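Dear H.,

Thanks for agreeing to be a second pair of eyes. The structure we're designing against is below in token form, covering all 250 positions.
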């Protein structure tokens, strides 16, 4: 397991998550009763959410704003309800609030407990507002504390916080999708694996920077991993067009 973590580049994990996301979204649209596509994409979604907080020190780029507005505009123009707002909007909202909220939370254990309880209490309206909602905030908070261990350590155990956030994510996924039997076991095991990998995010990023892909497959994987948001937007617009025109009138 340690060898996997040390040899896996973050863009490779992103690439796997993107493929699972595309497969999961198309399956959700056209095979809504199929559990396995949802399970695969939802466990790998952690790969998108933890870095929101881990990279909170970096400014939001124009492209993420363009992506968010493009998806809102596409929904409105095609006659779809834009709510819950897309993950691109979730990314922006969480990135904007994570730094001040975590600074407030780390004033004391009571503050930290209050913030997390409030986030869980608001999970239903948050998920109706934007994709992933509270789940995105909780996992981003785990990424933030992971990156800022020095600030977080006097108040919380970073490893325990990461584990508890993972458990909360699993519980919230179960509340939404009502998985049963082997599906629940898969959800727990796959999310635990993703949590372990992402807790060692620094190793994955270090390998990402070290890699110099030589063959076409590796270069394609790196391209996908480094352009995830654009792929996310394009595939959702294509999916919306297919639902609107191809499968409605076909």
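And this is the sequence the design step returned. I haven't edited it by hand at all.
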């Amino acid at each position: 397991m340690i060898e996997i973590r040390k040899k896996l580049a973050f863009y490779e994990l992103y690439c796997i998550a993107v493929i699972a996301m595309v497969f999961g979204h198309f399956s959700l649209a056209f095979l809504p009763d199929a559990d396995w596509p949802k399970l695969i994409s939802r466990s790998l979604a952690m790969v998108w959410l933890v870095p929101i907080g881990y990279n909170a020190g970096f400014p939001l780029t124009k492209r993420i704003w363009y992506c968010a507005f493009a998806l809102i505009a596409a929904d409105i123009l095609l006659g779809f309800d834009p709510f819950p707002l897309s993950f691109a909007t979730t990314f922006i909202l969480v990135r904007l609030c994570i730094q001040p909220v975590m600074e407030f939370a780390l004033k004391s254990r009571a503050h930290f407990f209050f913030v997390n309880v409030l986030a869980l209490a608001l999970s239903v309206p948050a998920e109706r507002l934007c994709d992933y909602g509270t789940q995105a905030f909780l996992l981003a908070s785990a990424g933030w504390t992971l990156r800022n261990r020095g600030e977080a350590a006097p108040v919380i155990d970073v490893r325990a916080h990461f584990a508890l956030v993972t458990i909360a994510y699993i519980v919230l996924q179960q509340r939404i999708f009502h998985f049963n039997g082997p599906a629940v076991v898969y959800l727990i095991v796959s999310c635990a694996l993703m949590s372990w990998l992402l807790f060692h995010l620094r190793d994955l990023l270090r390998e990402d920077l070290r890699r110099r892909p030589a063959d076409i497959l590796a270069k394609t994987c790196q391209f996908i991993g480094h352009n995830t948001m654009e792929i996310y937007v394009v595939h959702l617009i294509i999916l919306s067009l297919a639902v609107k025109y191809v499968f409605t009138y076909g």
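Two observations from my side: The CA atoms of residues 142 and 162 lie 5 Å apart. The chain has a mean pLDDT of 91.

Warmly,
E.
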